[in-house]
């Protein structure tokens, strides 16, 4: 008895699978195209990444393309330096109207050296690109002046350091009492020689009673009273202030196309190194960041994670960070790098000098431990 099988259904099944496969591949292709098209669309983010590194003891190109010293002190005796004192910058990828696409953002999210930020966090609404650039340039100019002042104070020079009122907020307690051009001499009898000292004095006074403020107005000393008010948990006078200096030494700082105040501490260290015998770093590569005021107080900055990686790319083993940025440092320190937490120029100088002498005691505070 012969047995026969009916294969008439096989071609139909193969044809069905073939159609399903074609449909599946078509769906994958369409989804891939959609994903690519979506990925190329502009995102509402910008990307912060490590920017150029500048040695304050070295040279940089100016706007004309010529190499010039970052620090020049033409009329004073200066001394040979060694090693590097690197200031660090952050580059921003994207601007309003020209933001990174989603593929670039996704790539940056997976890169520990870069940070994705909402565009409004970097470019506040209502502030034009031109205004923002002008503000950053003005902040850099002010920071350089503060760095010169801090370095000269550190070295024992005496010169006028005037906290000058340049504006009053509408409705502030100082309206009608203080005027533009007034120089704040002291608050409650405590001398004021920097913006930081004024802010500290106002905070310590509080908002419960009038503060006694000695001012110099058109060359005449007088004392006025202003009661600070609470703004976001901080006592303030409601005035805008700016520093005015009369330097006894001509110091020229050269750094084009870099904005913001975060180079202050490293510029101040570079000036101190130039004006003191012996190479402060002893040949070491030291990087750092931080604002500074004329009293030498080191303040917080933005983008410290990117600056840590910028320092790593410049082969720096030592990093000086503002103590107030330590919470952002933990967990983001490149291998082999030691991060010191600093609060003053004097402390930063002592650390660098000990590094240069090879006598680091280990007693300096650090913020790189988890």
UniProtKB/TrEMBL annotation:
Membrane-spanning segments: 23-41
UniProt keyword RNA-binding present: no
PROSITE patterns cross-referenced by the UniProt entry: PDZ
Domain PDZ: 140-219
Keywords recorded for this protein, A-Z: Membrane, Transmembrane, Transmembrane helix
InterPro entries membership: Lon_proteolytic, PDZ, PDZ_sf, Ribosomal_Su5_D2-typ_SF, Ribsml_uS5_D2-typ_fold_subgr
Name of this protein: PDZ domain-containing protein
Entry superkingdom: Bacteria
